[in-house]
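Quick question, first post here. What does this chain look like in 3D?
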Amino acid sequence: MTSASPAQQVLEHFADLAQARGYTLDSAQQAAIERFAVLADELLRPRLFRRQTPRSLYLWGPVGRGKSFLLDGFFAALPFAEKRRVHFHAFFRELHERMFRQPPGGDALAASLDDLLAGCRLLCFDEFHVHDIGDAMLITRLFKALFSRGVVLITTSNYPPEGLLPNPLYHERFLPAIRLIETRMDILSVAGPQDYRGASPAEPDPFGAGAYLWPGSPEQRRRLALPPLAQTRIEVPVGHRSLPAISAAEGLLHFSFADLCEGPTAVLDYLTLSESWQRWLLDAVPPLRDASPAARQRFINLVDVLYDRRLALFLVSAAPLDATLADSEIADMSRTRSRLSQLRQIGPG
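> Answer (accepted):
Ran it through. Tokens below.
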């Protein structure tokens, strides 16, 4: 009896998985699975018959369309040892740390990748996002290095390549990386009409479960079990340093706007903390027109991270949301306004 080909194994795995979970795969998901099956055969082809490295894949679509389900299913089904699957920002943080430890004078990126990717031919990144121009420049170098090493890359993202780093101030500087993605990767849209995370009313969207409060009275906080705005601070560890926070208890991380957004924080800090804290409270949010440009950009980045990770966000300000965001129309603010409008708006009374 002839054994199943790698492609057949992938197709059968997904069929069994969908049946076991009661899923009906939509056309976009089925197209992605069929492309995975082709890739499985290419990766398992005997070395003698490999003419070139298989093309990498970029899966994108809105939240809840099953991108991680597809990636995890393919990774599990592939009868292949030279593979690694990791959340993109966990990998990126580890890469940063390893590069920091490299001795001066050498190629820190190449040396770090030698350690991270030893024996790896397939690298799977879940939840690929680009929020920060500094990260974007390193990501460009990273992708070039991966492709030059013959590593096949699969990424999932909530954004099409052209939608990465959407801030108009920086987007043009990231275009070389976008063109590299479009040249070296097949772009697969997994953007079917069904939001599977929101399919059950018993499982509300965590981000939408947050709230925007004004003026943040003791009674409003009591109703939502939110702590008061204290003057004392604790230190919350983030990588090799710490950030001042008002409190960190019972699954809720509590910052003031001044500490988190006016202070020297970065997207990587928010991503690291988001892995441990499911609920966030940002207190004393001022009218953004009164904040520094850097603080406004950090606020936008924070909202993007928490929205993309589907974490609960509570904001407290002295005025309604429209007043807080008024006259602060910098790049990306329209997207932030749209996302914050999904929060419950709780005013006095």
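The CA atoms of residues 89 and 112 lie 16 Å apart.
The first strand starts at residue 56 and ends at 60.
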